[in-house]
Specification:
This protein has 417 residues and is mainly alpha-helical. The chain has a domain at 47-276. It has 22 helices and no strands. The chain has helices at residues 3-27, 32-43, 47-66, 68-77, 85-100, 103-120, 125-136, 138-142, 147-156, 160-189, 198-203, 218-228, 233-249, 264-276, 279-298, 302-312, 317-332, 335-346, 353-361, 364-367, 375-384, 395-414. Helix 2 (32-43) crosses helix 15 (279-298). The model is unreliable at 191-195, 205-210, 253-260 and 413-417 (pLDDT under 50).
Length: 417
């Protein structure tokens, strides 16, 4: 099942739910004007998200066409060796997801390579899939070009770069522990029965069309450097797009300034198709955001708010956010709606926007792929051909909320009185 087929079906489901909410509102005597107003109240902040997602579509399409992704994947896949395969697979997929901001794109590139190499090395496919899934979603919570991170910043009204710093601060312990676990498992499995040359043989054809030219990495380097200097994410991506377009027009050869490699028509077509490819995802986000306004207006979340408020007296606010994220991920079946609903439900329990943004990043964003029937789980695992049981070995995704919940309980117990 491809990403686009899943999104297509998800659009049908979300549209059906949206219609059902309107019908429910009308049966309660509400006017279409009122219902539309509530729906719009959830969507009106989405302009910035839609623009960034269109830019992400153009960016990834140009990175693929000019050779940036192939170059980075080819360069990184040289680190795949039997003894250190599992921690290397986690790190390499994490690096690609931070650079590209897309878990699906990571799974379709580095994830596929790692899965093929892992199978040839005799690595357990479930464990291999877990390492890849962990890495693929690493950038979802801390990449400056992640649409999930941007959505969290938008709905919580926080600064993206401040949130990223919080992700780094709260993510380093789960990262180290995940690496230790993958390293131990790799040592115990002893790399299977294949020899150390297998990875090199398999990765040799990854980027045959592109020579090892360092400047193919410039679009990715610019993203990271400008992010460090907190350049606005849209400007950051536009600069990377411009560099990618120049490389594409030069045919992947920076010395060919006659721009005979590819025509401007091809460039425009690739850019347009990349942006067009994001439209279904944008529609999923927009429809999901209408639910926030409708749920609030129709009072659907009132009882859940009351229940969460009662629970918050017994466990930490982060614990409440974690339980809410599990519930919303399981019910919504997609990461976007889980983020929106978790923010809505937990607003009263965790009124501080910055704390709530970090809590959502450490719960809804990474718990969604741990639910077997969500889009966030089905698509990447289906792309790399890994079994559903891989979820059990996605240690970074599991450890992050567990460690944060433990830290919350500890700080709660240390409070005076």
């Amino acid at each position: 099942m491809t990403r686009w087929n899943v999104l297509h079906k998800m659009l049908y489901v979300l549209t059906a739910i949206l219609i059902a909410l309107f019908v429910y509102g009308i049966t309660r005597g509400l006017s279409l004007r009122e219902l539309a107003g509530w729906a719009w109240s959830g969507v009106r902040t989405a302009k910035n998200i839609a623009i960034v997602m269109l830019l992400v579509g153009a960016l990834t399409a140009l990175w693929r066409s000019c050779g940036t992704i192939s170059y980075i994947v080819d360069l990184a896949s040289g680190a795949l060796s039997p003894g250190l395969f599992l921690p290397a697979a986690f790190l390499l997929n994490s690096a690609i997801s931070v650079l590209t901001g897309t878990s699906i794109g990571t799974a379709a590139t580095m994830g596929v390579i790692c899965m093929n190499v892992g199978m040839s090395l005799g690595i357990n496919p479930a464990i291999c899939g877990g390492a890849i899934l962990s890495g693929a979603y690493y950038g979802d919570r801390c990449s400056p070009v992640s649409t999930s991170a941007l959505l969290v910043a938008q709905v919580t009204k926080t600064n993206l770069y401040d949130n990223i710093r919080g992700m780094i601060r709260t993510g380093w312990i789960p990262t180290v522990l995940a690496l230790a676990i993958y390293g131990t498992l790799g040592f115990l499995m002893n790399g299977g029965s294949a020899d150390s040359g297998t990875a090199e043989i398999l990765k040799s054809g990854t980027a045959e069309a592109f020579s090892a030219k360092w400047y193919l990495a410039l679009p990715a380097i610019s993203i990271l450097v400008l992010a460090i200097f907190r350049v606005d994410v849209k400007i950051n991506m536009l600069i990377s797009i411009a560099i990618s377009a120049s490389l594409f027009l030069c045919g992947g050869d920076a010395g060919n300034m006659s721009m005979l490699g590819h025509s401007f028509v091809e460039l425009g077509k690739i850019t347009f198709l990349g942006m067009l490819g994001m439209m279904k995802l944008i529609l999923v986000v927009l429809i999901s955001l209408t639910f926030a306004g409708l749920f609030r207006g129709l009072g659907i979340l009132t009882r859940i708010h009351q229940l969460i408020s009662k629970i918050s007296g017994r466990i930490s606010p982060f614990g409440c956010t974690t339980l809410t994220a599990i519930f919303t991920s399981a019910v919504a079946c997609n990461q976007t709606l889980a983020i929106v609903l978790t923010n809505e439900i937990c607003e009263g329990v965790m009124p501080n926007e910055k704390q709530r943004a970090i809590a959502i990043e450490n719960t809804a964003v990474i718990i969604a792929p741990l639910v077997p029937w969500t889009v966030a789980s089905l698509v990447p695992l289906g792309t790399i051909g890994a079994p559903t049981s891989s979820i059990l070995f996605a240690f970074f995704l599991i450890l992050t909320p567990v460690i944060q919940m433990a830290a919350g309980l500890k700080s709660r117990h240390l409070l005076p009185g």
